[in-house]
Each structure stands twice: as C-alpha cells, then as structure tokens.
Design a protein that fits this description.
The chain is of the alpha/beta class.
Length: 415
C-alpha cells in the first residue's frame, strides 16, 4: 500500500526531468520525462518501510531515510534530488512537495507551539544545539575572511563567496548610516564578522552579544587577530537582559538572529530594541523570511537543525515592530541570494566530506547535506527569501532619499 501511495505521490510531482526509483522488492519505476534544465536522478529504497515513512511526512521521512542509508542515490546527489522535486513544484506557481499526514501535521503544530515559547533558558539550549557543535565544521564550510553564516550579497561583479559576504557587510553598514563615535549593538554576533568589519571600517565601538560559548571564544580570538579587540566588547548574554542595564545604542544591527527569536517573542524583541535605541538611532534587521503568509516550522528543521526557530513572514515582523513605534524606513527583499550562498556552502562541505565525518560521523554528514540541499531549494523554488528591514524611531533620522546608501556602500568597499 505504501509503495503504491509513494508512487502516486512521485508521479504527481515529477513531470520534467526523471526520477528512477528502485524499490526494496526489486521493482523499478521511472517518473517524469527528460527535459532541458531539469535533473535526472536515480535512487534506491533499501527497505520496504521507506515509502511509508515518506508518505507520512515527505520531508522528515526522506531525510531520516537518507541519513540512515535507507535511501541511497545512484545518479545525482541529495542536492540534485531535492532540486528535481522542488523545480517541478515551484512556490511561485502554487506548487508544494506535499504536507505531512494529518496526524503528523497536528503533532508537529503542537510541538512547534510548545517549542516556540523560547524563554531565556530554552533560547540558550536551542542556540547550543546548532552553534555549539564545534567551530571546525563552520570553518570548513564558511568563508574564512568573515565567517558569515548568513545570506551573502551577490552584486554585479561579485564572483566568490568571500567577495559576496564582504559585499553583504558593506550593504548593511551603508544602511546603518554610521557616524564617528557611534556605539553599535550587534545582536547575535556569530563569530564576530560584522562587529570586526564595522570596527575596521569606522570609528565606532561595538557591543556584540551571542548565546553560543563556541562562537564567543572564536569571535574574541578573531577580534584580537584583526587588531580591533579594544573597540569591541563581546558578551554571552540574552538580548532581553540588556534594557534593564539602562544603556542605549546609536545603532543596532541583527543579522541571521531574528529567525531564532520564536514567534511568541517577536513583540518582546522589538520592545527591547526600541528601548535600546537612542531617539535618532537606526536599526537594521537581516533575516530569513517567508514570501507568503505566516506558517510553522517543519519537523525535520525542528528536530535536527533549528529547534525553537521560526522563519517570519514580513507581515508579522512589521506588525510586531509597529506596536513600539519603530518606523520601517526601508525594506529590501533578497530573492535568490541565499540560494547562491547555500550552494557555495554545500560545495565546501562536499570538498571537506572526510574531515566533517571525522569531526562528527557519517549520519551527521548526511543530515547536514540534506539540510543544506533542502534550504537551497527553498530559496530557489520554495517560499523562502531574505529581508533587510531598516528601522528608526524618528522620521528625521535619515536623508530624504535612498541615494545615501549607494554612496556609502561604494565608499566602504573602496576603503
């Protein structure tokens, strides 16, 4: 029965490009037709339970089967498989690779709602799950220059990952409209790339906070090596604790952190930021976002990648900020930039396969590659994008037109 259902499921999805499936009973089926621009992939289900697991929850079932070696690929890799499925069902034209079964969907919603509470203790535990798995993995995957674990900016003439990440830093710095002497708060500073960049390019002080002990230690080392440790203060602290200190900042930047806040905490985040920003201050939030309406986090991502995380829709992000009179002075959508970035990370992980397996194990490596492949397809064909939202508390805080951004960006890159 499960074999029949998964065959119907695949035949309803794969129309262009081919997917050849060898089942555990020795039979084989091919779905789709060869088509220019679409992949041809061949895989094997090594036991009869794989079709059932996929029918119950396509994303989680396929992921765990691949992680356990029960779904193996003979033509193409996991990136090619996920791309084939997504390319046939793009979000733009109403496509979907299929939801979990009703029972799985209900249990996922209940678990998502419970985890999304994301109090201070839960936030640190969730961050540790993803970021405290060891810096060496990220050093193998990310650009060595800035160690940016967020969407790069692929401007004209940008060719390498390092160039794209530097372009992203300059793009954000230009939107902050920095002034000499500004005190900048970096919420979710990662390995210090943004803080170090700002301290190198501007006469500013930076307070950079994270909940990851691994990130904190390496960020401090990198700031020392860059010669700017005297102007950056790194702290292991939750953003919710800062307003109680009574200090405010001229500029606030948050890159790739808002996805970890959790939907019930959106208003808490923006209330804290409003209280931390001076009257004529500027804030920039760079976050993964949903192109469409609000949703939930799938079971695979919750279980293996980002527990407690939630990708926000633009509507709910701005709605939360409006309650604290934060003015959304500029909003930019980065449509395909993260797909290009993820493909670079995927290629780096392929190149360092043996080192990553030595650091962790084969199952972890497969999980990580499935995560990167699935994320890539979500940005290229699914409902994900990136938003950069600029906020102020005073409508007079910035120039009348956006021209200052382009001028500043060119100046920064020329430094």
């Amino acid at each position: 029965m499960s074999k029949t259902l998964v065959s119907r499921y695949l035949s309803s999805i794969v129309k262009q490009g081919t997917l050849t499936v060898s089942f555990a009973d020795g039979t084989q089926q091919t779905f789709g037709q060869p088509a220019e621009g679409f992949r041809d992939v061949a895989l094997t289900f090594t036991d009869s339970k794989v079709p059932r697991d996929i029918v119950l929850d396509p994303r989680l079932g396929a992921a765990e089967a691949f992680m356990d070696g029960r779904l193996t690929l003979q033509q193409g890799g996991i990136m090619e498989l996920v791309e084939l499925l997504r390319a046939n069902t793009p979000w733009d034209r109403g496509g979907s690779i299929g939801p979990p079964s009703p029972l799985r969907r209900l249990s996922n919603r209940i678990a998502f709602a419970r985890e999304a509470i994301n109090d201070k203790l839960g936030s640190q535990r969730n961050v540790a799950h993803h970021y405290d798995i060891g810096n060496p993995l990220y050093q193998l995957m990310l650009d060595s220059e800035h160690m940016q674990y967020s969407c790069a900016y692929w401007d004209d003439g940008v060719e390498t990952l390092a160039q794209a990440q530097e372009a992203k830093l300059a793009h954000i710095a230009a939107k902050l409209a920095l002034r000499d002497g500004d005190h900048v708060l970096d919420i979710g500073c990662g390995w210090g790339g943004m803080a170090i960049y700002l301290a190198q390019k501007f006469q500013v002080r930076v307070t950079a906070i994270t909940l990851s002990r691994e990130q904190l230690a390496l960020a401090q080392e990198r700031a020392e090596a860059a010669g700017v440790a005297d102007r950056i203060s790194f702290e292991l602290v939750d953003y919710r604790e800062l307003p109680g200190r009574g200090k405010q900042f001229d500029r606030i930047v948050s890159v790739g952190m808002f996805e970890h806040v959790g939907r019930p905490q959106f208003e808490t985040f923006f209330e804290a930021c409003a209280n931390l920003l001076v009257d004529d201050g500027v804030m920039l939030v760079h976050t993964i976002g949903r192109i469409g309406s609000p949703g939930t986090t799938d079971a695979f991502t919750r279980k293996y990648v980002f527990p407690g995380g939630y990708i926000p829709a633009l509507s709910e992000t701005v709605a939360a900020s409006e309650k604290f009179r934060l003015i959304a002075t500029d909003t930019e959508m980065l449509r395909l930039h993260y797909g290009k970035t993820l493909r670079q990370w995927y290629a780096n992980c392929l190149a360092h396969r043996e080192e990553i397996i030595a650091l962790h194990d084969e199952r972890f490596y497969r999980m990580w590659m499935f995560y990167l492949a699935g994320a890539t397809s979500s940005f290229e064909y699914g409902g994900m994008c990136n938003y950069q939202i600029q906020f102020t508390r005073d409508r007079h805080a910035l120039p009348l037109t956006r021209a200052y951004m382009a001028r500043a960006e060119a100046d920064i890159l020329a430094k």
